[in-house]
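re: ur question from earlier - yeah i can do the single chain one, its not a big deal. heres the input i used so u can compare w yours
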Amino acid sequence: MRRHPAAVLATAGEEAVATLDEDKPAAYLISAQAFEELLERLDDAELADTVRQRHWEIGQAVDTTLDAL
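and the output i got, formated as tokens:
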């Protein structure tokens, strides 16, 4: 892996590759596409949390118009 990490990733496909230190995972290597998908999922989860919080706040909303602002 030290000499050809891209080849290891190509062989792994979309699976993560673990680097071991004394038979324990020390780090994980994932493809750029997998990393981008992971970031997208995290972003979606944060957005869903914001939606849930704001949905609760709807009961506290005040009706108004742009002219009243």
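The chain is about 50% helix and 15% strand. not sure if urs matches, ping me
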